[in-house]
Amino acid sequence: MLAIHQRLAELYTLSRKRPLTDEEETEQRHCLQANAKYCWEMARLNNEAKLAADTEDTQWQQEICAQMYEVRVTGRAGKRPK
């Protein structure tokens, strides 16, 4: 879980008790945007991992697994090898 996911949970909990402040609403939008990027990146990597498995390209699969780990830990993947 990334820090943005924890903060989204906090903001959601706060919003159930009281209206969010303007600053909190801005922070919530930023967290939602970062979460969307995270989800799309993981979806792309999952699709590539399936392609690598289907083509039995173990080298590519290992690279994708490393990128997926990096995304799970940091929220973003480093540069993709060419």
Count of separate structural domains: 1
Distance between the termini: 29 Å
> What is the H/E order?
HHH
The DSSP helix count reads: 3
Uncertain segments? none
Write the layout of secondary structure elements.
Elements: H1 3-17, H2 22-54, H3 58-74
Helix pairs in contact: 1-2, 2-3
Summarize this entry quickly:
The protein has helices spanning 3-17, 22-54, 58-74. The protein is mostly helical.
Spell out the key features of this protein.
single chain; 82 residues; mainly alpha; 3 helices; 79% helix
What does this structure look like?
With 82 residues, the protein is mainly alpha-helical. It has one domain. Helix content is 79%, strand content 0%. It contains three helices and no strands. It has helices at residues 3-17, 22-54, 58-74. Helix 1 crosses helix 2. The longest helix is centred in the middle third of the chain and has 33 residues, at 22-54. 5% of the residues are buried. The mean pLDDT is 93.
